Amino acid sequence: MRILITGAGGQLGTDVAQLAARDEHHEVLGATHAQLDVGDRDAVLAVVTGLRPHLIVHAAAWTAVDACESDLDRAWRANALGCRYVAEGARAVGAHLVAVSTDYVFDGFSSVPYAEWDRTNPLSAYGKSKLAGEDEVRYALPDATIARTSWVCGQHGSNMVKTVLRLAGGGGPLRFVDDQRGCPTFTSDLAGMLLQLGLSRRPGLFHITNQGATTWFDFARDVVGAAGHDRSMVEPISTSDLDPPRPAPRPANSVLDNAALRLGGVPLLADFHEPLERTVKALIA
Q1: What is the pLDDT of residues 40-67, one digit of tens each?
Q2: What's the average model confidence in pLDDT over 7-32?
Q3: Considering the domain boundaries, does residue 224 fall inside one?
Q4: Predicted confidence band of residue 165 (pLDDT cuts 50, 70, 90)
Q5: Within a domain: residue 117?
Q6: Cβ neighbours of 49 (radius 10 Å)
Q7: Does 85 qualify as catalytic in the annotation?
Q8: Residues with Cβ < 8 Å from 101, sequence gap 6 or more?
Q9: N or C: which end of the chain has fewer CB within 10 A?
Q10: Mean pLDDT of the 10-36 span
């Protein structure tokens, strides 16, 4: 099977490409941002129709949440039109599409985890552009897979685990917000589920996270502890205490209920502490 991965140089795309390549029956075609700008329709259609993949995992996105607030055109071009063009290409060659989305499509005001059928209401430009990307995929490819995830971390790219480890090396104290709640998701685990759904051409919307909800404060303490540092170096603050405040609003509750997987009998990803330990050990080795 020929598998095209967009955003193959990012933290998620790298793991998807590496995992897919382990199966000798697959021909894996990874396109980094430098190789394929998904906001360029002609480039996307040329690549997709030239390669004629059976499966496309669309991991490319502009995920600089705060920067999206001040550059709306770039956000919409990458995150909304990018999905439109990739979906158009997939439809032209009969490829199954797995498109990756985000917890930021919710406003975070709910007191319970969000299921796939809950009403969306993004607060940030990033969230709005990603929701628009979901709509583009649904319109072009009703049988596509849309995978929402949250708090993505891994061995590649920039993420919270790497940030905490870097700051912890300075001795602290470290201050992280204790009033934003979500589910950390590790790319090594997420990649496998994306490929599983894509290779089986399973349509629909899925929430995919590692299990276990936490706050950024508690997550930072877990990272510090996994690295062998004193967890007490991490101190809690509220979002209103951030100085300077962040341009993009964050959902206070972005815990995703993996209801479509769970009710469909698909085994869920492991508790986040398991891949966290593996990832920290690999990063500090």
Answers
A1: 999 999 999 999 999 999 999 999 999 9
A2: 96
A3: no
A4: very high
A5: yes
A6: 11
A7: no
A8: 130, 131, 133, 134, 146, 147, 148, 149
A9: C
A10: 96
* CA–CA distance, 216 with 200 (Å, rounded to integer): 34
Integer Cα distance of 285 and 15 in angstroms: 19
Tokens of residue 195, six digits: 């490929």
Q: Do the domain assignments include residue 146? A: yes
Q: Are strands 181-182 and 214-215 parallel, antiparallel or unpaired?
A: antiparallel
Nearest 5°: the CA angle 127, 130, 136 is 145
- Number of separate domains in the chain: 1
Q: Coil, strand, or helix at residue 146?
A: strand
> Could you list the residue range(s) of the whole structural domain that residue 109 is in?
2-158+183-211
Catalytic annotation, pick one of 85, 104, 114, 126: 126
- Helices 216-226 and 160-168: crossing angle, nearest 10°? 60
Q: Give the 3-state secondary structure of residue 98.
A: strand
Q: What is the pLDDT of residue 217?
A: 98
Confidence of residue 171 (pLDDT cuts 50, 70, 90): confident
Amino acid, res. 158? S
